[in-house]
Amino acid sequence: MPRSMHKLSPRRVTTLSAPGWYGDGGGLYLRIKTDGSKRWAFTYERNKRRHEMGLGAVVDVPLAKAREEAAAARQLWIDGLDPIEQRRTTGQAEPERKPEAVPETVKQSGSPLFGPFAEAYIDTQEEGWKNPKHRQQWRNTIKTHGKSLLTIPVDVITVDDVVAVLQPIWRSTPETAGRLRGRIENILDAAKASKHIAGPWENPARWRGNLIHLLHRRGRKSQVRHHPAIPFEDLPDFILRLRRRPALVARALEFTILCATRTNETLRMTWSEVNLDDAVWNVAADRMKMGVEHRIPLPDRVVEILREIAKGTNCDPGTFVFEGQKIGKPLSQMSMTMVLRRIKLGHYTVHGMRSAFRDYMGEMTNHPESVVEQALAHQIGDETTRAYRRGDAFLKRRALMKDWEGYLDSKAVKSKQAKGRRKPDSARLAASRNHHGLGEDLRREIVTAS
Predict the structure, then answer these.
(1) pTM for this structure?
(2) Compositionally biased, Basic and acidic residues: which spans (predicted)?
């Protein structure tokens, strides 16, 4: 089937909402008015005049039927007949509608409008995006800040059009502006790959050699955001404070620090992922940022935490280990952050704990950098290196995590040892009595003897 035909899909017809003309090919258009109504129209030229033949409302005429009606009308036009006149002679109900104004760019371009094509592109790509928030951000930035591009065919968008979209937010919200520019560039590249844009052509949203000369260049500091981290030197004291808090969320935060994992990896952990006997946590690829399955060796303290939690649950394989107040739901994304705020450390972040882990390993140990990076579930080397290195250095990482646990536990161990050296209150009281009582008893004996 030629690419210029059957561009729409039933789902697209249902989800489209922005007013405009959406071509299916062969003269068939979906027309969405400003009041939200949707109708089918077949357009053609006869005697140097444009005609629009209504084919009915979308609610009454499905896409397949509209294509059949358009194909029949198109054949009449090819045969030299006027489709609207032919329908009148056969007594069909749909009268000729007065042609509505169509943007000049739509008349000149056979390519799809940017808005509909962007929606179609997101629909095809979002299956590979694990984060639902990321999917929604794509749509929101395009519809909110790229609104002026929505009704322009993809092959006639210019550099000026892109600059007009980016300029108002380039300084006020630079992060959003930068992401929007990249998304526009990707969508237009996809349109070119889909043969909706003929060459020679240069992407008007491209940064290097193009927009870099028209928009203020942001410094590196505005592009990189570091997560505030507790200095690793202070973490043993922090762990000691954390263990005094009995709440489940405190255990979740301690667990996250000990395993050097991301917030979402911890909170969405299920009992099916854990093997307590082997002290291993297997995180599925679809839950990892890099999309690669990750095995995590569990330190003794982590196993202890999990066994304590297991006492209060049936450990159903599908349930979350750190379950929230709502049954079947994990603790909220903000729960561990709130712990930091309650103990007056809200200026630090949970994700920053991973940075503290990295700093400690780099400055205080001799563990290889590649092993540390694998413990953080980061990609190591280029694609060729990863193709040959298929192991995950699990045994080395077990030793590394044992080292990390020992460091974090250092203050707690000293505290226990100090308590062990101190005699219980009853023993100290008895000793005090003996120490002071010896002289008292002797005094009494002397008095009695006299």
Answers:
(1) 0.49
(2) 88-101, 437-450
